[in-house]
Amino acid sequence: MRRAENHPSRRAFLGTAVLAGLAAGCEPGTGQPDSRDVPPVPPTGPHQAGITTPGEAQRNLLVVVADVEEGVAVGPLLAELGEVVRALTAGTDVRLLGSSPGDLTVTIGLGPRLVRVAGASLPGTADLPQFSREQVDPRARGGDLMVQVCAGDPVVLSIAAAALLDQAGDRVRERWRQSGHRGSTVPVNEGLAAPRNVFGFVDGIVGPHTASQQRRDLWLAGPAPVAGGTIAVLRRMELDLPKFAALSVADQEAVFGRGRDTGAPLSGGHIATDPDLGAKTPDGRYLIPVGSHVRRAHSAAVGVGLMLRRSYSIADPSPGLLFISFQNDLRTFTNTLTRMDTDDALLPFTTTTATATFLVLPGFDQQRPLGSTLFR
After folding, report:
1. Each residue of 255-289: pLDDT tens digit?
2. Nearest to 162, CA basis, from 62, 75, 235
């Protein structure tokens, strides 16, 4: 696999990740379970793993965004990657080097350029537009291939990614990669928990969590080549922690429109209560401020469906968030961010440094290779 200039070698990256994982494992009282004791997550089925399965996202993530070289047969490449995913999650790939995969999941998506090769009218052919508050290097905008690797064991991430990139070889060229971690989670309702971000607020409370919501807003229903897939949006954002920390707690809560400790909307109720955008104080002020993130990004106010957010906090290259959303219509994201761009109190604390969108391929199995519905 060819790499961008000034990017660490695969061996150097693997060594760094292993050292970091060993250091994390030496902390007293972390309670990190042995990955051999963690139930595996099936990689095959109608949808790829790593979106709604497992139900609570794993603690650790590594995303690699790459380009596919001109002239490469995309169908065979995807089929090979799917076979590697099956071997890695089964623990039979020798490139695991004896490590147990545990709850490893791998999610693979195609960028707009390759989707257009498969069919100009297919979902996923549109590139993300540029928005305000972006400082994105050209190498960190767009891309042909997304490989999202998640696991409870941080060491497994780089091992699995190295195996997948080794399989791809010189057919792909890496653009950028990002690791992330999820902090403590807060129960939202039965079977659903959401993590706190580096601002201290609960992230990803609202989304298509029921089966009916997922059929409506998450999974692509057609045309047949993409049925069972979804559209992913990746946005790496630096967050201005000192500027946000200088605010009072009340002002921080006004930025989000939720209580920092409880996650409940400022209109009242508990964390799972739908925000009441019309609720006012006796003197006529909105309980959820006009410029708050909850109000500006609310799906009903935007007029779009729900997006499933599976974001991760990041520490490198600077503190921030790797925003990841899944939706069956890219306009769910673009219309939301367009509305946020005009008057969202959260945006002044963010700077986007990488951005891309991908068609997450439908699920696969031994009889139906990964990507075979688009590239036969």
Report:
1. 999 999 999 999 999 999 999 999 999 999 999 99
2. 62
- Which structure tokens are listed for 279? 């609720």
CA separation, residue 183 to residues 10, 186, 240, 373 (Å): 27, 10, 18, 37
Phi and psi at residue 68, in whole multiples of 5°?
-95, 130
Amino acid at 236: R
Q: Which tokens belong to 233?
A: 């949006």
Q: Report the C-alpha gap between 373 and 148 in whole angstroms.
A: 20
Q: The tokens of 100 are what?
A: 């147990």
Rounded Cα distance between 71 and 48, Å, is: 26
pTM recorded for the entire structure: 0.91
Rounded Cα distance between 305 and 213, Å, is: 9
pLDDT above 80: residue 30: no
Helical H segments across 93-210, by residue range: 112-118, 154-168
Q: 55: alpha, beta or left, given left = phi > 0 and alpha = psi -120 to 50?
A: alpha
How far is the C-alpha of 27 from the C-alpha of 137, rounded, in Å?
36
